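Archive entry. Fields below.
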Amino acid sequence: MLQEPLTAGVCDGATESALAKDWARLLSRAAAEHAMTLPDLLAGGTAFEEFAAAAVAQWDPWLVQYTQMRHAEGRPLKWYEHTKLAEGAYATLLTVRVDPDSDSHPDTSEPAWRWRAAALGDSCLFHLHDDRLVQAFPVAAVEEFGTTPDLFGSRNRDVALLARRTRFTEGWCQPGDRLLLMTDALAAWLLSVPDQDDAVGQLLEFAGPDDLAGFKNWLNGLRDRRQLRNDDVALVRIDFEGR
Amino acid sequence: MSDPIGGEVPQQKADVVADAINRLLTELSVKCAKEEGVRDYFHVAVVGYGATVGSAFAGSLAGRDIVPLSEVADNPARVDERSKKVPDGAGGLVETVVNFPLWMDPVAHGGTPMNRALQYAESLVAAWTERYPASFPPIVINLTDGESTDGDPTTAAEAITAHATADGAALLFNLHVSAAGGTPTAFPDTADGLPDSYAQTLFAMSSPLPSHMRSYAASQGQRVSETTRGFVYNADITTVVQFLDIGTRATELR
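PREDICTED_STRUCTURE:
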């Protein structure tokens, strides 16, 4: 059972930017690591700005390394990659930290966990209690999804602006609760279905690595029926049990 | 197309048109560039019209009609390099090399057989819509000095927009490069104020912007209405690339 804090995140690279996958990977790792050592970043302010500056500072050195690697492999960057990479890479940011609460939640004698989250853009966190949706963050309605979400740019040094546009929230989980972190297409599906409880039930069928093939088939079924936008999907599931 | 156009530095109209096409292809390639290559979100044909009508690609793409964007991006006729100072993100400037790929050179001889050119484009559109009925409808961008020398192009234009895919009618946008002066105009919703009858004819031939393009233009602070058309007069046509949707846009926070 988990007695230590836990951090997790989902970052979704923008279709239109090159190396978005790499930037998303770097950003989600930086966020999870910083949230572990600097939990206050999940409340915004200067702690978040410090993290944002540190994440952006990692990009150019990574890019130099990548460029050298491409060169060494005899595949130097093409003209359009030079142009594109000068614009930077873009991704959403969603990161969450869960702390086992040493005191139980004031309203109950059961063990509880406190969670805090930061989100920039449209990757979403859902809090389930009794397998029903009790909180959706930062997007609450399907109409809010579009092709121009706020994005964390790999060259954005305006950390005050990044902090201002990032949303922060927190909550409590009891045994049996779950947190789901997911990219926008799947989140939009969950917020748009007529029967949300049934949709949650379908989603919870998939719990572990052995379920990957089934999960992919299920997603492809939704895509074929035009219920899910044809876009990448990432899902992180955190289940709370006893302590 | 060999008349100079107005402005501080008189520039041959043919240069303006070639420059616009090279910039369109550059923007489109960069928009769809991912590491390891450009995605074939679009296929592109460049049709030149003057003494002859046909593929205007120079270099290794010469003679090709519709080419996947990845091949276009990988095969410019040449890439010019120029130095440029760009912001370094920390308040200073840094010297960098900017690449200017070129796929076609200016051609200024012969007439302006717009009818034949539009008919040629229509044959490409017809074949495409038949082959890919579920794709986004083709977009024909006609860059011209407006003076069709083989008759009124309206019927040929209508023939293009009569083709459709499941997603809607093929689109015809026009860029009119003119020495007549007047106010440069991009994506107007009325012909009022256009300086001459050529501009008005081209405006009338241009497709209204589809709703998703209108909403993008509006989100960028452009004034648009339901009657806004894909027409540009002596102004930058390359913004049209920004109207094309391929997924999540990569934009800095504002």
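CURATOR_NOTE: The longest strand of chain B covers residues 78-87.
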